[in-house]
Design brief:
The protein is an all-alpha fold. It has 15 helices and no strands. Helix 1 runs parallel beside helix 6, helix 5 runs antiparallel to helix 6 and helix 12 runs antiparallel to helix 13.
Length: 439
């Protein structure tokens, strides 16, 4: 694949996003009325008929979005309905492009110091992004689900914060994701990807902001808990049917089981040094146990595969992103039988979950304070190893007398052994590089 500049990388992804927006937008906004209604009610306060403000969830349990989503949606209500929907769809589409950039920057930061060929990384982000964008337009434009959009956007920000080792930002972003849509609870194991001594601070930020957003509703009207009991039909194409659940509507145990499965799988992934799989596993838990089969659910899976393909492994071709699009979305159009589509969803979840948890991955990170972080390898499969006499600037021979928890690759140069003045230094090809964190 030819070399791609950072500018061309962004131009191609932007053009791809605009193309899909133009194709889908005339027929979009399928669920936007839920957000518009919730946006009106949440700003209503006590001035209306008493069904809005802090009473919103008690009187409208069908509105399954979080308060941050309604507060954001209400900002578009001063516009005419069609104009507001268009502007919201445009903003949500742009956030998809931002997510791809965030994934690339997170990967670049994660691989700093490992000898990764960042030209190949940029290519991998581009190929995975081309698979991600169509499904993003599905959730953002065709359905207009601002709640999913914000939850996934804040989750992507949380991943970026993890790679920078920021506990406050990680906890805050995960909280905002749950404040946008409660299903983001399955992504909380990302907190465990931080160094152990930062867990408490991250958890406090997360719990505090979740309580700040949700407690006023539950304290204002105890009937708000009714929103947690809202049910939807158990579709014949759901994977639940293949698991032997024949209930016509959502079983009472189903939502807690989704959260529990996502949390357990995510925690196992971090323990296995594969924290980049947390989002994919959380999304898998949702689609395998959810009674509905809306195509916009696949957007959360595609965010998971995007993160896994660019951070969790190093193959140039991001197979999982494209497999997810073809299997989960393509089967909707080419497989007419509901039962077979349900089996396909179940098979994808089983295989992808088994792969990211069990398949051997090179250079798995250590445990404890460096949980989930890779050790810098001597060489990678993405670029040639530098000869000993061509060390990058600022790096000389390693002092064998100093050994850190991750081995000598984490140590600085022996004093007095840096490059000579005027010597060749390796140029940085990292388009998103910043200072390494939590190393």
């Amino acid at each position: 694949m030819p070399a791609i500049s950072q500018r061309m990388h962004l131009v191609l992804l932007t053009a791809w996003t605009v193309l899909w927006f133009i194709v889908v937008e005339p027929h979009g906004g399928f669920s936007w009325h839920y957000l518009r209604t919730g946006g009106e009610l949440i700003y209503q306060g006590s001035s209306g008929d008493g069904t809005g403000g802090l009473n919103l969830y008690a009187h409208h349990p069908e509105l399954q979005m979080g308060p941050i989503s309604f507060l954001t949606a209400g900002l578009f209500n001063p516009f005419p309905e069609a104009t507001g929907q268009f502007l919201a769809a445009a903003l949500m589409s742009a956030l998809g492009l931002v997510i791809v950039v965030l994934a690339g920057r997170s990967a670049a930061h994660h691989f700093l110091g490992t000898g990764t060929n960042h030209q190949r990384l940029r290519q991998r982000v581009l190929i995975a992004g081309l698979a991600f964008i169509p499904m993003w337009i599905e959730v953002a434009v065709r359905f207009g689900h601002l709640d999913d959009v914000l939850a996934l956007f804040f989750t992507a920000l949380a991943v970026r914060a993890v790679t920078r080792g920021s506990p406050a930002l990680t906890g805050a972003c995960l909280a905002l994701a749950m404040d946008s849509k409660p299903t983001a609870l399955a992504f909380v194991p990302l907190l465990l990807a931080l160094p152990r001594d930062k867990w408490l601070r991250a958890a406090l930020w997360c719990a505090g902001l979740v309580a700040l957003a949700w407690l006023p509703f539950f304290l204002g009207d105890a009937q708000s808990f009714a929103a947690a009991k809202f049910t939807i039909p158990n579709h014949p194409a759901s994977a639940l049917r293949w698991l032997g659940v024949a209930d016509p509507k959502t079983p009472g145990w189903d939502r807690p089981a989704q959260f529990a499965l996502g949390l357990v799988l995510g925690a196992i992934a971090v323990w296995r040094g594969r924290w980049a799989a947390v989002v994919l596993l959380g999304a898998n838990a949702r689609i395998v146990l959810d009674p509905s089969v809306y195509t916009y659910y696949t957007a959360s899976v595609l965010l998971g595969t995007l993160l896994w393909d660019v951070i969790g492994q190093r193959r140039l071709v991001p197979w999982w992103s494209w497999l997810a699009v073809i299997i989960l979305y393509g089967s909707v159009f080419v497989v007419p039988d509901d039962s077979v589509r349900g089996l396909i969803r179940l098979a994808f979840v089983a295989v992808s979950t088994g792969y990211v948890l069990l398949w051997p991955v090179r250079e798995r990170g250590g445990r404890g304070g460096r949980r989930g972080r890779r050790r810098p390898p001597a060489r990678t499969d993405e670029g040639p190893e530098l000869p000993a006499d061509e060390e990058p600037a600022g790096r000389g021979p390693v002092n064998p007398a100093v050994q850190g928890p991750a081995g000598p690759a984490d140590q600085g140069p022996v004093p007095g052994t840096g490059p000579l003045p005027g010597a060749w230094t390796q140029p940085s090809a990292t388009p998103w590089a910043g200072p390494p964190a939590a190393r």
